[in-house]
Every structure is written in C-alpha cells, then in structure tokens.
Amino acid sequence: MVIRNEDIKELALEVPEGHKHLRAVLVLEDGEEIVLQEAAIANLVRAYITVKTHPTTFRVVLKGKRVDGRKEGYAEWQLMESEEQP
Using one digit for the tens of pLDDT, what is the confidence trace for 2-31? Predict the structure, then answer.
C-alpha cells in the first residue's frame, strides 16, 4: 500500500484521554483509519532522521524483536536495527 499525501484527509496526533502515550491517526480519503502507537512513530522518526541526515546511509531496516532483560519502562517488543543495512 502506498499512501500519497493527497490520500490523507486528516492526520491527528494526540494523547487520548486516559492514556499516557501518543497516537497518530491517519484518516484516508476512502474513510479508512490507520492508527500508529507512540513506539511505532518514534521508530519511524528515528529511521527517517538517520537516513535524512547521515551522509552515507541511504536505508535503515528495523525488525521486530522480543527483548528479554530490557530496561525498566521499555516494552518487551522492540523494533531493532537489522543487519540488512547496505
């Protein structure tokens, strides 16, 4: 699926009532809604900044991984840099 800018009717970024973390809601022109949780947004931004600002990095691949022995407050499921980088 490719979502073009003109396919997005509305984008809302908020902390929903009763929650502590951000959510991004993309409402598409066809009425479909895509909701991204804060961790997904943070990983997307982290990868974007890396590719956009690093002089020789043109691709970042993050893969989902269950992390044991993680720091307090961190989720068990994390997107981690993959070895597939060019």
Answer: 999 999 999 999 999 999 999 999 999 999
